[in-house]
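Record minuted for everyone:
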Amino acid sequence: MNEEVMTAEKQEKDPESQPEEISTSELELPTMSSNLKYLSLGVLVFQTTTLVLTMRYSRTLKEEGPRYLSSTAVVAAECLKIAACILLVYRDNNCNLRTLNRILHDEIVNKPMDTLKLAIPSGIYTLQNNLLYVALSNLDAATYQMVQYIIIWN
């Protein structure tokens, strides 16, 4: 009985001496993380390739009349992204319009310096997207993809 009490006291004082139990879910975590990593990579490659091919096709399509303005396409894409973000915030807040309005007001209107800090990167991002359309109008899709990957690797 004394040995059991002493062993219990020793384990309480030295937690490293306690045997750790490893659950099955902890063993599966690296495998699941690795699978998620490759799945994410595959989805990203598919999305990027599809985007480039459809943009190239739409910019080089031979039809009568003027082509669409690339700036209009960029603005439309950004408006869709804003709408999707607002919808997700709305859903995260139990579909409550008052809460959504409060959050948007608190995060955008009440933090003008934070909002202004995002103006420069967003302007550069818009310029980059417009240049993407110019590049795809003048280069073939494979050349554009290779240049993009080289830029990313450097």
Remarks:
- The chain has seven helices and no strands.
- The longest helix spans residues 24-60.
- The chain has a mean pLDDT of 81.
